[in-house]
Each structure stands twice: as C-alpha cells, then as structure tokens.
Specification:
heterodimer; A: about 210 residues; mainly alpha; Arp2/3 complex 21 kDa subunit ARPC3; globular; B: about 260 residues; two-stranded antiparallel sheet; 10 helices; 2 strands
Chain lengths: ~210, ~260
C-alpha cells in the first residue's frame, strides 16, 4: 500500500530535488548534443543550451550555474566536443552559467514572462560570447577575425535560438504542471509547506512508491 | 542508445584488462592533469622537440592501455573538422608584415605564417589533450572517476552532480528504450510525418517521465536521511609506489617544460 505524503516539500527535499533535477538536466545536456551532432545539426540548433536554460528556470541559480560550467567541460572530456583546444568548451563554460543565472533572475526573481526570460538569457549569453571573443582573439593573434566570427556564429545559431525560444518555455511549463517545482518568487527561505498543493489534491506522484 | 553511451565512454573498456585499467584512478587523474598542463604550456613551434617527447609519452600510454583506436579516432574527428575548417580559411588571414607572409602551395595564394602556426598548435595540442583524456576516461569509467575526485577533495557538490549525471544517462537510456519499444509494438509511424509526430511526443513524455523519476529519487534520498550532502566513499590511502609514480612524472614534466 502506498502512503501518500500530504505535506509540501521540506528544505532537504528541495536540496535533494535540486541536485536530482540538475543531474537529469546535465545528462540531457550530454545526450542531446550527441543526438544532434549525429545528424550534423549540433552547431545550428544549440542543443546544449536547452537543458541549461531549463535548469536556470527550474532549479536554484547556483546549482544551475554549476551545471552550466560542468556540462560543456564534461562533454569535451567524454566526447571531444566542444573541443578543449581551441578553447571552445571553456568559452561555453563561461557563457552557459551566465545564461542559467540570467534566466533564473528574470523568471524567478523578477517574475517576467517565461519567453522574455529565455530571450533575455540568450541575449546575455551572446553578449558574454562577444566579450569573450573580443578579449581572447588578440591573445591568439586573431583580432581581425573576432567581429566576422561573432557575426557568423550569431547568424548560424539563429535556428537554435528560435528552437530554444519555442521548446524551453513549453518544456518548463509542462514540468511545472506535473512536478513539485516551487512557485515563482524570490529565492530565500523554503516555500511554506501550506502554500503548496498536497499530493492528493493535484495528483503529483512525487512520493508514489 | 547503447552505442551512444559507449561512444561517450561512460563505462571503462573492462574487456581488456591492462596495466592502465588496474592503476589507481587517483594516480591516473593526477598524471593526466600533469600531462595536459605540460602539453598546454609548451609552445608547439619553438618547443617541437619537447612536444615529440610528450607525444611519445601519450602514445606509450595509449599502447599500454590497449584501447580500441576507433574510440580515439571518433573523439579526434572534432579537432580534425575544426582545424580543417580553419585551414580552408588560411588565405583569408592577411599577414601582419612581409616576414609574416606564407606562400601556400595552391594557385599562388598567400596566408599568414602566424595563423598557420596557430592552426598547427591547435591540432597538435588538441590531439594530445584528447588522447590523454580518452585514456583516462576509457580505462577508468565515470563512476570510479567520481570516487577518485571525491577522494582528491574536489568540492562535494561537483562530485555529487557528476555522479547524478552518470546515473541519469543510464535512466534516460532505459526510459527511451522502453518507450521506443512500446511505440514500435503499437505500429510506429508509416509516413515520415507520423514518425516525426511520434518522435516529438516520445521526447516530450520522456522528459516528463524522467523529471517525475528525478523527484521520486529526491524523495527517496530524503527518506534515507539526505541533508544536503551525500556520504563520501573513502578509498584506501594511496600506496607509496603510486605517490612515487605521480611525483616522478610531475618532476619529469616540470623538468621538460623548463628545459
């Protein structure tokens, strides 16, 4: 017989849920680019951005940022893409945490619409990439190639940006409907137990055994 | 999916037990860090002799590890694609000065010597770094690697995240296999549009199902007393021989870099 827990999540549960969801999204961040690269669409559709953006919108900002650092580096170590030399993986490990943090800030703290949060995060990511390229290109002796590179990467990644804007809000809304992701609001003390629907009310199976 | 996971070398190639497979994972991590640092620090053009020594070391490790060459070649192809792409663009890199002009053996084109050296550097360093990391991941496996990192005092949140990622790749694979089997048993899709629709639905429900599973895992963790930190699995202390191996390799690499 399954005993349903009728109280909301506790602080320990939120911590556990954060690390557990982060692990899941991290795994997606490794598997999705592999699938896209298998059909030669990895660079166009920015598949690694999807789970990191979702992490920014769903879990705590620091865990999402850590995920943004870990995923490109781990992917580089395990699959060789994005490459560590030239340092594309390192550039992404700086860009992705910013995207996750900005998405969290816009959606959870400032309570903006999810599509605006995603667009804002992607714009912030592009700005960070621009700063990185302009800073690093002279060190590599490629100062004249910096601006054309930026323009080319932005144009080629437009389908990916559109895919992110379409897929991420839909996926996040779907996850919010079926799981116990806390309601939007400033992060701080854990959500009061009484403010969350009980398991029996909304039928979420989070403690089904 | 299984091929995909094999490609990512999640599990060590346990079929071939070599010296590299038996070596303590912590020793492998420390040696790999030293080797990668040395490769990145030494310049390719002016330090080509040093790179020959480093390359010999990497090849020796690959041979001792008795790993399949196909796995390494799959990882190296990304570097090859990137460097080939840059090489094609070489005529567009204008030289800074007359000394920087490089005559290309193609229809009288010229390029930048500095840019060519940069591409060479990317190729050489990238190949050696990827080969070293391939040996580390393929002979150790991510599970042992996370335990080794935990033992080497890497921050616990990072180690926990790595172990969860490793677990969820397996979970995702299993869920995807179950759902794909169910889809095929129901007849799948005859036309491309139907198959695409079924695939999109499958991906969406895979995401939701794995999220629900993630919450069940979190609930199970809390039930088992999780308070924000997983219990650390401590290994036995490193043997004197292992420490000596790491110290001697690091000393040799430092000497090579400073030579």
């Amino acid at each position: 017989m399954c005993n349903h827990v009728t109280s909301g999540p506790t602080s320990s549960f939120l911590k556990a849920r954060d690390i557990s969801l982060a692990g899941l999204l991290g795994a997606l961040g490794l598997v999705l680019p592999m699938l896209f690269h298998l059909i030669g669409l990895g660079k166009v559709f920015l598949p690694m951005f999807i789970p990191i953006l979702m992490a920014g919108l769903l879990i705590s900002p620091w865990m999402a940022a850590l995920l943004g650092i870990v995923v490109p580096l781990l992917s580089a170590l395990l699959t060789g893409m994005p490459p560590l030399v030239p340092p594309i993986a390192i550039l992404m490990a700086i860009e992705l945490p910013v995207i996750a943090m900005v998405a969290h800030l816009l959606y959870r703290r400032w309570r903006l619409h999810i599509v605006i949060a995603v667009v804002g995060a992607l714009v912030a990511g592009k700005l960070v990439t621009g700063i990185e390229i302009v800073t690093i290109a002279p060190l590599l002796g490629l100062q004249r190639a910096a601006i054309p590179y930026l323009v080319v990467t932005t144009v080629t990644s437009l389908p990916g940006i559109i895919l992110n804007i379409v897929v991420v809000p839909l996926a996040v809304r779907a996850i919010e409907r079926v799981t116990l992701v806390p309601p939007r609001g400033p992060s701080g003390p854990p959500t009061p137990l009484s403010s969350l629907p009980s398991n029996q009310e909304n039928g979420t199976p989070w403690l089904d055994c | 999916m299984a091929r995909l996971l094999g490609w990512a070398s999640w599990n060590a190639h346990t079929g071939d037990e070599s010296l590299m497979h038996r070596l303590d994972a912590r020793v492998k991590v420390l040696c790999a860090v030293g080797l990668v640092a040395a490769v990145l620090v030494v310049p390719v053009v002016s330090g080509w002799a040093k790179h020959l020594v480093l390359a010999a070391l990497v090849v020796a490790v690959l041979v001792v590890g008795r790993l399949p060459a196909t796995g390494l070649l799959r990882q190296l192809r990304w570097i090859a694609i990137f460097c080939l792409g840059l090489s094609v663009l070489l005529p567009f890199f204008r030289p800074h000065s007359p000394q920087d002009v490089l005559a290309l053996p193609l229809a009288g084109l010229t390029g930048s010597r500095q840019a060519a050296q940069l591409i060479l550097s990317f190729t050489v360093k990238g190949t050696m770094v990827v080969s070293t990391i391939f040996v580390l991941t393929a002979t150790t496996g991510l599970r042992k690697l996370t335990v080794a990192l935990s033992d080497l005092r890497v921050p616990h949140c990072l180690v926990e995240l790595l172990s969860f990622i490793q677990r969820y790749v397996v979970v995702l694979g299993q869920e995807a296999q179950h759902m794909d089997r169910a889809r095929r048993l129901r007849g799948g899709g005859r036309t491309l549009a139907l198959r695409f629709k079924a695939g999109a639905g499958l991906a969406a429900s895979l995401l939701i199902r794995t999220c629900l599973r993630a919450e069940r895992v979190a609930a199970a963790m809390v039930t088992r007393g999780y308070t924000g930190r997983l219990p650390r699995i401590t290994q036995a202390k490193m043997s004197v021989g292992a420490i000596a191996l790491v110290v001697s390799l690091w000393t040799a690499l430092a000497a090579l870099v400073m030579w």
